[in-house]
Amino acid sequence: MTATVVVGTQWGDEGKGKITDRLAKKMDAVVRYQGGHNAGHTIVVGEESFALQLIPSGVLYPHVIPVIGNGVVVEPSVLIDEIDMLESKGIDTSRLVISGNAHLILPFHLEIDKMVERFLGKNKLGTTKRGIGPTYADKASRVGIRVQDILDPKIFKEKLEILGKEKNAILAKVYNKLPLDCSEIADKYLDEYLPRLRPLVGDTVTLLHDMLESKKSILLEGAQATFLDLDHGTYPYVTSSNPTAGGACVGAGIGPRDITDVVGIAKAYITRVGAGPFPTEVDGEVADSIVDRGHEFGTNTGRRRRPGWIDAVLLKHAARVNSLSELAITKVDILDPFDVIRICVAYEINGEKVETVPYHQSDFHKVKPIYEDIPGWQSDLSQITTAKELPKQALSFIQRIEEIVKVPVTMVGVGPKRDQLIDLKGKS
Ligand code: GDP
Ligand code: IMO
Ligand code: MG
């Protein structure tokens, strides 16, 4: 019996999809525990690329039960499109189970997400405009509509009517927008979505505990990342859920003592989409090279990701808040041509050196990175399959991160494909 969490340690897009897919080979279930279709997790198998937003990255294996946990927010049309996309590529999605306690994203939420961003003007967060924040806000306000509500059309219509009144008043009076038609929404959700969702909705908590009791292995796939976490991220420039490992317990209904491993995923550099502080952000030629070589454009929104050097201060913090047991470093191949690779090892603030993340956001905005420079390997890593083939500079880079973060690096990504991953287990 094992329950392993995969968690992003930076600002997202670290390669969680690829690592989840890899680990899923030996798992019986893969669970998404938070977030929604703001996520974009890419898996490349042979020449085929899958960009998943809601369905767990374990779905590609016929033996895995993909689970959408109670902590996720679900946009039914996106889910149905994703199911259809996978089926059209020959992937069986019939094992998918969606928690009845997950919350539904409704058209109001999308509209309000866009309006709030517009009203924030230059202070906007740069959300994915998928309605994520407003849906979680309704969940916390106890007026949200859950997946189970749609199974009873009478209850669904009643709840929608109440919610619709409030949301339409906000849209009209605050944002000067036309109201949305609740009966049209009800028709869409009940006539179009319900027949597709009904067979998939279930009691995911009981399912997962029954699996754990019968010695099965579960993988909990985080979306977003530690520094986008509502509590531990760079608030307000965060998402509205808890991607950190503790969120896996809440979002899947598993107790902390059931978690056996926490695998942190870090890119060999960092990217961030949307606004917010980013101490190691770079521009100019280095930035262009990282973005071009790493194809750093949002899987989902197409936005150019902001690039920067790897930040070990953030990684140390992520190791603590997630209680990381191991670390996977992805996209190391993207740094192939660089003659010097920088690791941020501390920050300078008001003339002082600090080695932890300042808790005060104003301080974090001001910190200057202190770098350690590592010689680059300047060779092609993409064809390497074993640790002993790695150039010594690449090994030094990995070992240095390991030393500072004090977490063993067990996997090294050298390309987007499923097999472009070097297993370092036992060698670190
Ligand atoms: P996620 O959101 O954390 O799952 O990451 P994304 O899928 O949004 O972004 C990671 C991107 O990098 C995807 O296009 C992956 O196919 C790709 N990728 C993952 N690992 C590697 C790697 O080790 N090397 C290279 N070159 N690409 C990778
Ligand atoms: P994966 O799982 C990168 C960012 C948005 C924005 C902030 C809030 O693919 O790593 P939201 O729509 O969630 O309210 O936006 O969070 N964001 C992500 N950035 N990867 C993601 O997911 C993200 N999901 C949300 O860009 O800055
Ligand atoms: Mg992504």
What is the global morphology?
globular
- Residues in helices, as a percent range: 25-40%
Bound molecules: guanosine-5'-diphosphate, 6-O-phosphoryl inosine monophosphate, magnesium ion
Q: What is the β-strand count?
A: 19
**Assembly level:** single chain
Give the amount of beta strand, in percent. Answer: 15-25%
Average pLDDT, all residues: 96
Main sheet specs: 10 strands, mixed
Low-pLDDT ranges: none
SS-based class: alpha/beta
How widely separated are the two ends?
25 Å
Give me the number of helical elements: 12
Cα-atom radius of gyration:
22 Å
Biggest sheet, strands in spatial order?
A: 9-7-5-2-10-1-11-14-18-19
Describe this structure in words.
- The chain has 428 residues and is an alpha/beta fold.
- Helix content is 33%, strand content 21%.
- β18 (409-413) and β19 (421-423) form a beta hairpin.
- α3 crosses α4 (132-140), α3 packs parallel to α5 (153-173) and α5 (153-173) crosses α6.
- The longest helix has 21 residues, at 153-173.
- Bound molecules: guanosine-5'-diphosphate, 6-O-phosphoryl inosine monophosphate and magnesium ion.
In short:
The protein has 428 residues and is an alpha/beta fold. The chain has helices at 16-24, 76-88, 107-120, 132-140, 153-173, 182-197, 204-213, 245-252, 284-294, 312-322, 361-366, 392-405, and strands at 2-8, 29-32, 41-45, 48-52, 65-68, 73-74, 97-99, 103-104, 201-202, 217-221, 261-267, 269-272, 306-311, 326-330, 340-349, 352-354, 368-375, 409-413, 421-423.
List the topology elements.
Blueprint: E1 2-8, H1 16-24, E2 29-32, E3 41-45, E4 48-52, E5 65-68, E6 73-74, H2 76-88, E7 97-99, E8 103-104, H3 107-120, H4 132-140, H5 153-173, H6 182-197, E9 201-202, H7 204-213, E10 217-221, H8 245-252, E11 261-267, E12 269-272, H9 284-294, E13 306-311, H10 312-322, E14 326-330, E15 340-349, E16 352-354, H11 361-366, E17 368-375, H12 392-405, E18 409-413, E19 421-423
Parallel strand pairs: 1-10, 1-11, 2-5, 2-10, 5-7, 6-8, 7-9, 11-14, 13-15, 14-18
Antiparallel strand pairs: 3-4, 12-13, 15-16, 15-17, 18-19
Helix pairs in contact: 3-4, 3-5, 5-6
